[in-house]
Amino acid sequence: MITSFDKVLEKCPLCSSPKIKPFANWTFKKIPLQYQQCHSCGFIFQNPTYSAASWGKFYKTDYRALYNDDSKPAAEVIKIQNDRADHYSQWLSNLNGKVKSHLDIGSSAGIFLKKIKDSFGVVKSTGVEPGDDYRQFASENGFDIFEDIDQLIESKPEKYDLITLCHVLEHIPDMVDFLKKIRAHLLSENGFLFIEVPNIRGGQSFEIAHPNCFSHKTLNDVLEMAGFKMVRHAEHGMPRTNHKESKIYLSSLSTPSEKQAEKASLASSEYLDSSLNHIRKGFTLDSWTMFWLKYPIKKLLGKFPV
């Protein structure tokens, strides 16, 4: 298991500003983590973190075992993925009939691929999943699953009407370049990009596998820098909780834009001053407390998969 970080960032990974300051310390499964905030754009990120080579090894060999106590698809993981797939398909229901091809990046066991295929009448479903066991599981259920997007791009596929990244972007260190590559090589001209990430201003998202922490502002910055326009977004708690005050997730739908922002927008002093307060508020919501009370004790001890 790789638990020692081997890269220290001197600048913000979003806007390249050197004005970065300590934000929070955290412990995830007995692994100490440190996060910093950029006092130019407001982005919150893991620092120190992994090098590109170490990230590759981590996802190849360690990620599933660390998060799920097993590298193979587990029943509780499949249950959570089914709940998420139901919620995502409802949130995207206005696209029903508008998309004939779907690419799910971070496709795991292929549950969301199947849901969109069955619900939307999609004729081409493709996944990208780095985990060997999960990739094999989805492949055995009839889906074309690639190990990474570079491998997919090399296959020269027809571009997709819908690309989804559900709890993926928080894992990608080079997030802007990653989305630029998707826009250039994989998304159709009139296609849609759906992203969901943890909302740092609705709770916390400090985990060993999360180099990035997003708010609506910084997610929008990333999208605009990659050449996208956010056309719809929501801050919510589904499928964990439907409490109206819960905002632990950010969902967004975007389309390709003719414009591309050169840099992230500046964060106001009020935005920077309120960052920690938003996280504290997220921890005190009744909905957050009630969610955890619904699950077995073993999950409260750190075994809840995400």
CATH second-level architecture = 3-Layer(aba) Sandwich
For the record, the CATH class is Alpha Beta
Number of strands: 11
The end-to-end distance, rounded to whole angstroms, is: 19 Å
Number of domains: 1
Computed over alpha carbons, the radius of gyration is: 18 Å
CATH topology: Rossmann fold
The helix content is 25-40%
If strands are numbered along the chain, what order do they take across the biggest sheet?
A: 6-5-4-7-8-11-10
DSSP helical segment count = 10
Which structural class matches the secondary elements?
alpha/beta
Instruction: Name the beta content range.
Output: 15-25%
Care to describe what's here?
The chain has 306 residues and is α/β, with parallel strands linked by helices. The chain has a single domain, classed as Vaccinia Virus protein VP39 (Rossmann fold, 3-Layer(aba) Sandwich), CATH 3.40.50.150. The protein has ten helices and eleven strands. It has helices at residues 52-68, 75-91, 111-120, 132-140, 149-154, 175-185, 216-225, 269-284, 286-293, 297-303; strands at 20-28, 31-38, 44-46, 101-105, 124-128, 144-146, 160-166, 187-198, 212-213, 228-236, 249-256. Helix 6 (175-185) links the parallel strand 7 and strand 8 (187-198). Residues 295-306 have low confidence and may be disordered.
